[in-house]
Amino acid sequence: MVYAPNENVTDAIKRAGLPRNHDIHWSKARKEEVVQAVREKLISFDEARWRYLLSHSEFRQWEQQVDARHAQKVTPKQPLELRNRELARGGELEEA
């Protein structure tokens, strides 16, 4: 794990701003925080499963949702330069 030898998992979770336990509303942002914490080895997958009562399939779903959101953010529908050119001409945006 990434946390220091003298730090326990509870302290690492607090430092990362992760929820303390499973008894919360799981927003997209909170799910992403847990997925990132596991991917960055801040907490182990087993620790996340135990603390948040997650099944393997539920965690995999969260990962897929996070990856899909990141893919949408990274891939714009049109290049910014083309959008600016269209707007400068007073035209409507073309679909890519």
Structural description of this entry:
The chain has 96 residues and is mainly alpha-helical. It has a single domain, classed as Arc Repressor Mutant, subunit A. Helices cover 58% and strands 0% of the residues. α2 (28-39) packs across α4. The radius of gyration is 19 Å and the shape is elongated. It starts with 8 loop residues before the first helix and ends in an 8-residue tail after the last helix. 11% of the residues are buried.
Give the CATH superfamily: Winged helix-like DNA-binding domain superfamily/Winged helix DNA-binding domain
CATH architecture: Orthogonal Bundle
| H/E element sequence | HHHHH
What's the number of extended β-strand segments? Answer: 0
Write the CATH fold name. Arc Repressor Mutant, subunit A
| Residue-averaged pLDDT | 76
Radius of gyration: 19 Å
Low-confidence stretches: none
Count of alpha and pi helical runs: 5
**Helicity, in percent?**
55-70%
Strand content: under 5%
| Sheet with most strands | none
| First-last Cα distance | 44 Å
What's the structural domain tally?
Answer: 1
Q: Provide the CATH top-level class.
A: Mainly Alpha
Which shape, going by the Cα principal axes?
elongated
What class, by secondary structure content? mainly alpha
